[in-house]
């Protein structure tokens, strides 16, 4: 018996989602190779210092880490419940490389030009994960570092992250340009761009 008041699994499932067997791996294109000597995380756009910055692999790997327990909702309707991610919080990166005061949006860039745009408040909740369930993230799941924004559909959780672009005005990323919702809140089933209300996307 579960104690009274314990939420059942279904109550944590956003509308239209289901729990699959297994744990699908999904991405567009090839899995990139990681090379610690050439890897960097680049910051560009509206950086407060007025010029691009970069963190090398040893610099990034030395940043303090936190853990996040979260569900994962793909717009193709499967959800993976209870993932334990560990990595660097966005707040740590924002302190290391402050954005200009008028930054309201952020573009996350992965290898090979994959990108996803998020609002500043959503970026603030992002974890840059190096581990999943106490193991280093596998190559096909985004090693060495992937973004995790559990309260948005998973296409915003960019694997193989390589750059962060601070934006003063919103701009659509890879899937957002191809008909997917600019905001992507699974609890509101914001799947497609035709559902966008005024103000939810760039003009
Ligand atoms: N770089 C990159 N990140 C990506 C994608 C991609 O195509 N390229 N696909 C997204 C989508 S649609 C999903 S559902 C998740 C899948 O993560 P998983 O392979 O760990 O299940 O990664 C997201 N991040
Ligand atoms: Mo997805």
Question: Can you describe this structure?
Answer:
Strands 2-1-10-5-6 form a five-stranded mixed beta sheet. Strands 3, 4, 7, 8 and 9 form a five-stranded antiparallel beta sheet that branches. Helix content is 8%, strand content 29%. It has one domain (37-195): Sulfite Oxidase, Chain A, domain 2 (Alpha-Beta Complex). The model has no long low-confidence stretch (mean pLDDT 95). With 203 residues, the protein is mostly beta strands. It is built from three helices and ten strands; from the N terminus they run ββαββαββαββββ. The structure holds the ligand Nc1nc2c(c(=O)[nH]1)N[C@H]1C(S)=C(S)[C@@H](COP(=O)(O)O)O[C@H]1N2 and molybdenum atom.
């Amino acid at each position: 018996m579960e104690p009274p008041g314990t939420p059942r699994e279904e109550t944590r499932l956003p509308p239209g989602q289901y729990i699959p067997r297994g744990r699908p791996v999904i991405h567009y294109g090839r899995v990139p190779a990681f090379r610690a000597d050439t890897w960097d995380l680049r910051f560009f756009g509206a950086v407060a210092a007025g010029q691009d910055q970069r963190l090398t692999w040893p610099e990034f790997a030395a940043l303090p880490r936190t853990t996040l327990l979260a569900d994962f909702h793909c717009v193709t309707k499967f959800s993976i419940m209870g993932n334990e991610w560990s990595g660097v919080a966005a707040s740590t990166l924002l302190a290391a490389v402050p954005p200009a005061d008028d930054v309201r949006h952020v573009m996350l860039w992965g290898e090979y030009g994959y990108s996803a745009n998020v609002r500043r408040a959503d970026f603030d909740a992002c974890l840059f994960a190096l581990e999943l369930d106490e193991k280093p993230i596998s190559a096909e799941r985004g090693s060495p570092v992937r973004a995790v924004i559990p309260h948005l559909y998973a296409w915003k959780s960019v694997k193989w992250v390589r750059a962060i672009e601070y934006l003063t005005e919103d701009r659509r990323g890879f899937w957002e340009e191809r008909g997917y919702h600019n905001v992507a809140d699974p609890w509101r089933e914001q799947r497609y761009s035709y559902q966008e209300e005024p103000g939810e996307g760039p003009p």
